[in-house]
Amino acid sequence: MNLSFGSRTITIYMARTFLVRSLAVLAALVIVLLALDLLGESGDILAYKGNGSPELWTYASLRTPQIISRFLPFAVLLGTLITLATLNQNSEIIAMKAASVSAHQILAPLIIASVAVAAVSFAFNDRIVTRATATLSAWQAVEYGPIPADRGIVTNVWLRDGDDLVHADTVGGRGAATVLRGVTVYDRDGGILKSIVTAASALQQGDGWVLQGAQRFDVAAGVRAPAPGYRIAQGVTPDRFTLADVHPDERSFTDLSDAIGELSAAGRPTGPLRAGLWHKISGPLSAVLMPLLAGVAAFGLARSGRLFLRAVLGMALGFAYFVADNFALAMGNLGAYPPSLAAWAPFVLFLLIGEAVLIRTEE
Fold it and tell me: Rounded distance, CA 141 to CA 232, Å?
Protein backbone atom coordinates (compact mmCIF):
# COMPACT_ATOMS: atom_id res chain seq x y z
CA MET A 1 0.00 0.00 0.00
CA ASN A 2 1.68 3.19 -1.23
CA LEU A 3 0.64 6.34 0.62
CA SER A 4 3.02 8.73 -1.14
CA PHE A 5 1.72 11.45 -3.47
CA GLY A 6 1.57 10.83 -7.20
CA SER A 7 3.00 14.21 -8.18
CA ARG A 8 3.03 17.79 -6.97
CA THR A 9 0.73 18.94 -9.80
CA ILE A 10 -1.83 16.22 -9.14
CA THR A 11 -1.69 16.89 -5.39
CA ILE A 12 -2.36 20.63 -5.70
CA TYR A 13 -5.02 20.14 -8.37
CA MET A 14 -7.01 17.55 -6.42
CA ALA A 15 -6.67 19.30 -3.05
CA ARG A 16 -7.79 22.63 -4.50
CA THR A 17 -10.74 21.05 -6.33
CA PHE A 18 -11.78 19.19 -3.20
CA LEU A 19 -11.61 22.25 -0.93
CA VAL A 20 -13.44 24.55 -3.34
CA ARG A 21 -16.30 22.12 -3.86
CA SER A 22 -16.58 21.26 -0.17
CA LEU A 23 -16.77 24.95 0.74
CA ALA A 24 -19.36 25.52 -1.99
CA VAL A 25 -21.50 22.69 -0.64
CA LEU A 26 -21.09 24.01 2.91
CA ALA A 27 -22.14 27.52 1.86
CA ALA A 28 -25.24 26.15 0.12
CA LEU A 29 -26.16 24.04 3.16
CA VAL A 30 -25.72 26.96 5.56
CA ILE A 31 -27.87 29.31 3.45
CA VAL A 32 -30.71 26.79 3.04
CA LEU A 33 -30.69 25.49 6.62
CA LEU A 34 -30.38 28.95 8.17
CA ALA A 35 -33.33 30.18 6.10
CA LEU A 36 -35.44 27.22 7.21
CA ASP A 37 -34.38 27.69 10.82
CA LEU A 38 -35.26 31.39 10.73
CA LEU A 39 -38.70 30.53 9.39
CA GLY A 40 -39.28 28.34 12.41
CA GLU A 41 -37.84 30.68 15.05
CA SER A 42 -38.72 34.13 13.73
CA GLY A 43 -42.21 33.96 15.24
CA ASP A 44 -40.82 33.30 18.73
CA ILE A 45 -38.17 36.00 18.35
CA LEU A 46 -40.61 38.65 17.18
CA ALA A 47 -43.19 37.62 19.79
CA TYR A 48 -41.15 39.39 22.45
CA LYS A 49 -42.15 43.04 22.56
CA GLY A 50 -39.54 45.32 21.02
CA ASN A 51 -37.75 42.67 18.96
CA GLY A 52 -37.32 43.30 15.25
CA SER A 53 -34.87 42.89 12.39
CA PRO A 54 -31.75 43.46 14.57
CA GLU A 55 -32.74 40.54 16.78
CA LEU A 56 -33.28 38.34 13.72
CA TRP A 57 -29.79 39.20 12.50
CA THR A 58 -28.43 38.51 15.98
CA TYR A 59 -30.07 35.10 15.97
CA ALA A 60 -28.66 34.37 12.51
CA SER A 61 -25.15 35.35 13.65
CA LEU A 62 -25.40 33.01 16.64
CA ARG A 63 -26.99 30.12 14.75
CA THR A 64 -24.65 30.17 11.75
CA PRO A 65 -21.58 28.87 13.65
CA GLN A 66 -23.66 25.98 15.00
CA ILE A 67 -24.85 25.02 11.52
CA ILE A 68 -21.32 25.23 10.12
CA SER A 69 -19.97 23.03 12.92
CA ARG A 70 -22.67 20.40 12.57
CA PHE A 71 -22.76 20.13 8.78
CA LEU A 72 -19.09 20.61 7.91
CA PRO A 73 -18.48 16.82 7.81
CA PHE A 74 -21.55 16.42 5.55
CA ALA A 75 -20.16 19.11 3.26
CA VAL A 76 -16.79 17.33 3.13
CA LEU A 77 -18.54 14.06 2.27
CA LEU A 78 -20.57 15.62 -0.54
CA GLY A 79 -17.60 17.65 -1.75
CA THR A 80 -15.52 14.48 -1.95
CA LEU A 81 -18.22 12.61 -3.84
CA ILE A 82 -18.64 15.45 -6.35
CA THR A 83 -14.89 15.76 -6.84
CA LEU A 84 -14.21 12.05 -7.31
CA ALA A 85 -17.29 11.37 -9.43
CA THR A 86 -16.35 14.25 -11.75
CA LEU A 87 -12.76 13.03 -12.05
CA ASN A 88 -14.03 9.54 -12.82
CA GLN A 89 -16.59 10.82 -15.34
CA ASN A 90 -13.89 12.78 -17.19
CA SER A 91 -11.54 9.75 -17.20
CA GLU A 92 -8.97 11.64 -15.10
CA ILE A 93 -8.84 8.77 -12.61
CA ILE A 94 -8.07 6.36 -15.47
CA ALA A 95 -5.26 8.64 -16.63
CA MET A 96 -3.78 8.72 -13.12
CA LYS A 97 -3.93 4.95 -12.76
CA ALA A 98 -2.38 4.55 -16.20
CA ALA A 99 0.52 6.62 -14.87
CA SER A 100 0.95 4.07 -12.05
CA VAL A 101 -0.75 6.21 -9.41
CA SER A 102 -2.38 3.92 -6.82
CA ALA A 103 -5.79 4.37 -5.25
CA HIS A 104 -4.24 5.54 -1.99
CA GLN A 105 -2.06 8.03 -3.84
CA ILE A 106 -5.16 9.41 -5.57
CA LEU A 107 -6.94 9.88 -2.24
CA ALA A 108 -3.88 11.13 -0.33
CA PRO A 109 -4.25 14.83 -1.34
CA LEU A 110 -7.89 14.80 -0.25
CA ILE A 111 -7.02 13.19 3.09
CA ILE A 112 -4.23 15.70 3.77
CA ALA A 113 -6.56 18.58 2.87
CA SER A 114 -9.24 17.12 5.15
CA VAL A 115 -6.72 17.02 8.02
CA ALA A 116 -6.32 20.78 7.59
CA VAL A 117 -10.11 21.11 7.52
CA ALA A 118 -10.34 19.11 10.76
CA ALA A 119 -7.75 21.35 12.45
CA VAL A 120 -9.60 24.50 11.39
CA SER A 121 -12.89 22.93 12.50
CA PHE A 122 -11.51 22.14 15.96
CA ALA A 123 -10.25 25.70 16.44
CA PHE A 124 -13.52 27.13 15.10
CA ASN A 125 -15.59 24.96 17.44
CA ASP A 126 -13.38 25.72 20.42
CA ARG A 127 -13.24 29.49 20.03
CA ILE A 128 -16.44 30.51 18.26
CA VAL A 129 -19.11 27.80 18.35
CA THR A 130 -18.93 27.29 22.13
CA ARG A 131 -19.43 31.00 22.82
CA ALA A 132 -22.24 31.30 20.29
CA THR A 133 -23.96 28.24 21.78
CA ALA A 134 -23.70 29.56 25.34
CA THR A 135 -25.07 32.96 24.32
CA LEU A 136 -27.92 31.50 22.28
CA SER A 137 -28.88 29.10 25.08
CA ALA A 138 -29.05 31.97 27.57
CA TRP A 139 -31.11 34.04 25.12
CA GLN A 140 -33.54 31.20 24.45
CA ALA A 141 -33.91 30.58 28.20
CA VAL A 142 -35.47 34.06 28.55
CA GLU A 143 -37.59 33.58 25.40
CA TYR A 144 -35.48 36.00 23.34
CA GLY A 145 -35.79 38.82 25.86
CA PRO A 146 -32.95 40.73 27.51
CA ILE A 147 -30.34 38.35 28.89
CA PRO A 148 -30.01 38.93 32.66
CA ALA A 149 -26.57 39.59 34.08
CA ASP A 150 -24.88 36.59 35.64
CA ARG A 151 -25.15 37.15 39.40
CA GLY A 152 -23.04 34.11 40.20
CA ILE A 153 -25.86 32.26 41.98
CA VAL A 154 -25.95 28.49 41.56
CA THR A 155 -29.01 26.47 42.56
CA ASN A 156 -29.62 22.88 43.67
CA VAL A 157 -26.01 21.97 44.42
CA TRP A 158 -25.03 18.48 45.58
CA LEU A 159 -21.63 17.45 46.92
CA ARG A 160 -20.27 14.19 48.30
CA ASP A 161 -17.90 14.48 51.25
CA GLY A 162 -16.67 10.98 52.00
CA ASP A 163 -19.80 9.00 52.89
CA ASP A 164 -21.77 12.17 53.61
CA LEU A 165 -23.97 14.02 51.12
CA VAL A 166 -24.33 17.81 51.24
CA HIS A 167 -27.12 19.70 49.49
CA ALA A 168 -27.53 23.48 49.19
CA ASP A 169 -30.58 25.18 47.74
CA THR A 170 -28.46 28.12 46.51
CA VAL A 171 -24.80 29.05 46.51
CA GLY A 172 -23.78 32.69 46.09
CA GLY A 173 -20.56 34.65 46.09
CA ARG A 174 -17.05 33.65 45.16
CA GLY A 175 -13.97 32.61 47.10
CA ALA A 176 -14.01 33.30 50.85
CA ALA A 177 -17.31 35.19 50.45
CA THR A 178 -19.18 32.09 49.28
CA VAL A 179 -22.42 31.48 51.21
CA LEU A 180 -24.45 28.26 51.19
CA ARG A 181 -28.17 28.69 51.85
CA GLY A 182 -30.78 26.05 52.62
CA VAL A 183 -28.18 23.45 53.61
CA THR A 184 -29.02 19.79 54.27
CA VAL A 185 -26.35 17.30 55.35
CA TYR A 186 -26.99 13.55 55.18
CA ASP A 187 -24.56 12.05 57.69
CA ARG A 188 -23.82 8.48 56.64
CA ASP A 189 -21.51 5.78 57.95
CA GLY A 190 -20.77 2.90 55.61
CA GLY A 191 -23.77 3.79 53.49
CA ILE A 192 -26.14 3.81 56.51
CA LEU A 193 -27.90 7.10 57.27
CA LYS A 194 -27.12 8.20 60.85
CA SER A 195 -28.50 11.73 60.99
CA ILE A 196 -29.85 14.62 58.94
CA VAL A 197 -28.57 18.11 59.68
CA THR A 198 -30.33 21.20 58.34
CA ALA A 199 -29.29 24.82 58.51
CA ALA A 200 -30.31 28.15 57.05
CA SER A 201 -26.79 28.87 55.80
CA ALA A 202 -23.15 27.87 55.99
CA LEU A 203 -19.96 29.93 55.90
CA GLN A 204 -16.38 28.89 55.32
CA GLN A 205 -14.18 28.99 58.41
CA GLY A 206 -10.65 27.67 58.22
CA ASP A 207 -10.57 24.52 56.13
CA GLY A 208 -14.23 23.65 56.74
CA TRP A 209 -17.76 25.06 56.74
CA VAL A 210 -19.77 26.03 59.81
CA LEU A 211 -23.57 25.72 59.72
CA GLN A 212 -25.58 28.65 61.04
CA GLY A 213 -28.61 27.71 63.15
CA ALA A 214 -28.12 23.99 62.59
CA GLN A 215 -30.65 21.37 63.67
CA ARG A 216 -29.64 17.70 63.86
CA PHE A 217 -32.12 14.84 63.53
CA ASP A 218 -30.86 11.50 64.90
CA VAL A 219 -32.36 8.77 62.72
CA ALA A 220 -31.94 5.95 65.25
CA ALA A 221 -33.32 7.87 68.23
CA GLY A 222 -35.84 9.91 66.27
CA VAL A 223 -34.84 13.06 68.16
CA ARG A 224 -34.17 16.53 66.79
CA ALA A 225 -31.83 18.86 68.66
CA PRO A 226 -29.84 22.05 68.01
CA ALA A 227 -26.28 21.54 66.76
CA PRO A 228 -24.43 24.83 67.27
CA GLY A 229 -21.07 25.15 65.52
CA TYR A 230 -21.63 22.01 63.40
CA ARG A 231 -18.80 21.70 60.87
CA ILE A 232 -18.96 19.96 57.51
CA ALA A 233 -16.88 19.45 54.35
CA GLN A 234 -13.39 19.65 55.80
CA GLY A 235 -10.90 20.59 53.07
CA VAL A 236 -13.63 21.40 50.51
CA THR A 237 -12.89 24.60 48.59
CA PRO A 238 -15.64 27.05 47.59
CA ASP A 239 -15.26 26.38 43.86
CA ARG A 240 -16.57 22.84 44.37
CA PHE A 241 -19.89 24.35 45.47
CA THR A 242 -20.07 26.99 42.76
CA LEU A 243 -19.92 24.56 39.84
CA ALA A 244 -23.08 25.01 37.78
CA ASP A 245 -24.45 22.55 35.25
CA VAL A 246 -21.79 21.91 32.63
CA HIS A 247 -22.78 21.58 28.97
CA PRO A 248 -19.99 20.30 26.71
CA ASP A 249 -21.27 22.27 23.71
CA GLU A 250 -20.87 25.52 25.66
CA ARG A 251 -17.34 24.92 26.96
CA SER A 252 -14.00 25.02 25.20
CA PHE A 253 -11.77 21.94 25.39
CA THR A 254 -9.60 23.30 28.21
CA ASP A 255 -12.55 24.74 30.16
CA LEU A 256 -14.45 21.47 29.88
CA SER A 257 -11.39 19.49 30.96
CA ASP A 258 -10.98 21.73 34.04
CA ALA A 259 -14.70 21.45 34.86
CA ILE A 260 -14.53 17.66 34.64
CA GLY A 261 -11.64 17.62 37.09
CA GLU A 262 -13.53 19.84 39.53
CA LEU A 263 -16.74 17.83 39.22
CA SER A 264 -14.84 14.59 39.72
CA ALA A 265 -13.23 16.01 42.86
CA ALA A 266 -16.69 17.00 44.06
CA GLY A 267 -17.88 13.41 43.62
CA ARG A 268 -20.25 14.11 40.74
CA PRO A 269 -20.65 11.80 37.71
CA THR A 270 -18.58 12.91 34.72
CA GLY A 271 -19.03 10.09 32.19
CA PRO A 272 -21.19 12.03 29.69
CA LEU A 273 -18.89 15.05 29.99
CA ARG A 274 -15.82 12.91 29.30
CA ALA A 275 -17.54 11.51 26.20
CA GLY A 276 -18.25 15.08 25.10
CA LEU A 277 -14.62 16.04 25.76
CA TRP A 278 -13.26 13.25 23.57
CA HIS A 279 -15.88 13.99 20.92
CA LYS A 280 -14.50 17.52 20.60
CA ILE A 281 -11.51 15.81 18.95
CA SER A 282 -13.13 12.86 17.18
CA GLY A 283 -15.94 15.05 15.79
CA PRO A 284 -13.72 17.34 13.68
CA LEU A 285 -11.55 14.34 12.72
CA SER A 286 -14.58 12.78 11.02
CA ALA A 287 -13.72 15.03 8.06
CA VAL A 288 -10.61 12.88 7.55
CA LEU A 289 -12.78 9.78 7.11
CA MET A 290 -14.95 11.25 4.37
CA PRO A 291 -12.46 10.95 1.45
CA LEU A 292 -11.81 7.34 2.43
CA LEU A 293 -15.50 6.42 2.72
CA ALA A 294 -16.41 8.28 -0.48
CA GLY A 295 -13.37 6.93 -2.34
CA VAL A 296 -15.43 4.11 -3.81
CA ALA A 297 -16.97 6.70 -6.18
CA ALA A 298 -13.57 7.38 -7.75
CA PHE A 299 -12.95 3.98 -9.23
CA GLY A 300 -14.59 1.71 -11.74
CA LEU A 301 -15.39 2.55 -15.34
CA ALA A 302 -17.84 5.43 -15.65
CA ARG A 303 -19.20 4.06 -18.89
CA SER A 304 -20.23 0.83 -17.15
CA GLY A 305 -23.23 2.69 -15.73
CA ARG A 306 -22.23 1.98 -12.14
CA LEU A 307 -20.80 5.39 -11.28
CA PHE A 308 -24.10 6.49 -9.77
CA LEU A 309 -24.33 3.31 -7.70
CA ARG A 310 -20.77 3.82 -6.47
CA ALA A 311 -21.57 7.41 -5.49
CA VAL A 312 -24.67 6.22 -3.62
CA LEU A 313 -22.56 3.57 -1.85
CA GLY A 314 -20.04 6.22 -0.79
CA MET A 315 -22.82 8.46 0.48
CA ALA A 316 -24.39 5.54 2.36
CA LEU A 317 -21.08 4.75 4.08
CA GLY A 318 -20.68 8.39 5.09
CA PHE A 319 -24.19 8.73 6.47
CA ALA A 320 -23.89 5.36 8.24
CA TYR A 321 -20.90 6.80 10.09
CA PHE A 322 -22.90 9.81 11.29
CA VAL A 323 -25.71 7.54 12.49
CA ALA A 324 -23.24 5.32 14.36
CA ASP A 325 -21.46 8.34 15.82
CA ASN A 326 -24.69 9.89 17.16
CA PHE A 327 -25.83 6.53 18.53
CA ALA A 328 -22.53 5.90 20.32
CA LEU A 329 -22.50 9.41 21.79
CA ALA A 330 -26.08 8.93 23.03
CA MET A 331 -25.07 5.64 24.66
CA GLY A 332 -22.14 7.42 26.27
CA ASN A 333 -24.45 10.11 27.66
CA LEU A 334 -26.65 7.37 29.14
CA GLY A 335 -23.63 5.65 30.67
CA ALA A 336 -24.05 2.49 28.57
CA TYR A 337 -20.70 3.01 26.82
CA PRO A 338 -17.41 4.12 28.39
CA PRO A 339 -16.58 7.72 27.35
CA SER A 340 -13.58 6.86 25.16
CA LEU A 341 -15.49 4.06 23.43
CA ALA A 342 -18.48 6.34 22.76
CA ALA A 343 -16.27 8.98 21.16
CA TRP A 344 -13.77 6.87 19.22
CA ALA A 345 -15.40 3.52 18.37
CA PRO A 346 -17.35 4.79 15.29
CA PHE A 347 -14.25 6.58 13.97
CA VAL A 348 -12.02 3.51 14.25
CA LEU A 349 -14.72 1.16 12.93
CA PHE A 350 -15.41 3.17 9.79
CA LEU A 351 -11.71 3.82 9.24
CA LEU A 352 -11.25 0.05 9.03
CA ILE A 353 -14.37 -0.33 6.87
CA GLY A 354 -13.17 2.34 4.44
CA GLU A 355 -9.71 0.80 4.18
CA ALA A 356 -11.19 -2.68 3.68
CA VAL A 357 -13.49 -1.49 0.89
CA LEU A 358 -10.68 0.42 -0.84
CA ILE A 359 -8.17 -2.41 -0.62
CA ARG A 360 -10.74 -5.02 -1.64
CA THR A 361 -11.91 -3.13 -4.72
CA GLU A 362 -8.82 -1.30 -5.95
CA GLU A 363 -5.58 -2.39 -4.33
Answer: 35
